[in-house]
Each structure stands twice: as structure tokens, then as C-alpha cells.
Amino acid sequence: AMYHAKNYGRNNYQFYSRELGSKASEYIMLGASIRQALKNAEFELFYQPQVDLMSGSIVGAEALLRWRNPQLGVVMPDRFIKVAEESGLIVEIGEWVLREACNALVSLNNNRGEQSPLSMAVNLSSRQFLYNDLLASVKQILAETGCKPEWLKLEITESLLLEDSQEIINTLSAFKEMGITISIDDFC
After folding, report:
1. Each residue of 57-107: pLDDT tens digit?
2. What span, in angstroms and rounded, lies between the C-alpha atoms of 128 and 134?
3. Torsion-angle region of residue 28: left (phi > 0), alpha (psi -120 to 50) or beta?
4. Cα–Cα distance measured from residue 10 to residue 24, given in angstroms and rounded to the nearest whole number
């Protein structure tokens, strides 16, 4: 009930109910399941093509995370990302997503011959900026995978820009200097 009240801001109160108890239990179980999913390689990426409307050609893709849970089937991000962010697991998941997306992108671009290279959009969580040395992680993953920075588009949320943090500004500037494109994700 305390956390439920906090979600509604200050100066209010909430009563405990069985529904709140079952939500808390589900939250705890989901967090434990996400930890297991990381260990058991249950996450996978789907790639949504990005098409140039004038030419009709594919110019890139966006990496979309899905969780293939043995009991629940395919779990969409809206069901587990918030828990992953609040538990801090989003940092590890985000690094996995970036590494997998970069590996796929290198493979795709190595097979394109003389065609223009494809780009890959990857969503970042604000937690990745706040609880991780994101710049070092991105540099390491690019070096490991051989992915060129100019092939990568990192999507951030508007709320990240409201943080008013010099560290975030420095990280975004460093990404830009490396040649990485930054865009604001339109999903809220």
C-alpha cells in the first residue's frame, strides 16, 4: 500500500488490498523470472525493417526485444521492461540487446557487397545512463563486434533529456563525436 501511495504522489494514503498483494507477488515472480531468462538465453531480438519511402529499399532495422518464456510464451516488453528497469536488470539486458544487434548488423552489412550499409536502431533505457558506464559499454561492444559507429542509431526517451545531467549530456556528445546517431524514441 505504501508503494501504491507513492505512485500517486505525496499527501495521500492507500489501503492494503488483496489485489495489491497479488500484484506485489507477481512483480517479485516476474523479477526472478527475468533473472532466469538472462541465464537461460530466453531473450531474442526481432528486426523491424526501416524502408526508404521514395525508393522502397530497406535502409535499416530496429531491434525489438522479446522474451520467449517457457511457461508464458512470447512476452512483450510492456509486460517486463518496467520490472527490469526497477530491478536494475535492464543494464544487463540492454548490453545483451546492443551486442546481439551489432553482431546481426555486422553480418548483414558484410553480405551487402557494394550496396550502402544498413543501420540499426536500438532503444536505450534511462537506467542504462544512470546506473552504468554506458559510453564504455558501447565502445567495448563496438570493438568486440566490429560494428561501425555510423551504422548505429541509439534511441532515447524524452524523459532522459529532462534529467538535466551533465554526465548524460557528455555521454550523448561522445556518441555523436563517434558517429553514432541519436534519436528520440516516439514510444512513451
Report:
1. 999 999 999 999 998 899 999 989 989 998 899 999 999 999 999 999 999
2. 6
3. alpha
4. 21
**Rama region for 181: left / alpha / beta (φ>0; ψ in -120 to 50; rest):** beta
3-state SS, residue 125 = coil
What are the phi and psi torsion angles at 136 (to 5°)? -65, -40
Could you count the other beta carbons within 10 Å of the beta carbon of residue 22?
A: 10
58-69 vs 73-75, strand pairing mode: antiparallel
What distances in angstroms separate CA 144 from CA 20, 73, 99, 107, 137, one per listed residue?
44, 32, 8, 13, 10
User: What sign has the CA pseudo-torsion 138, 140, 144, 148?
Assistant: positive
Neighbouring C-beta atoms of residue 125, cutoff 10 Å:
22
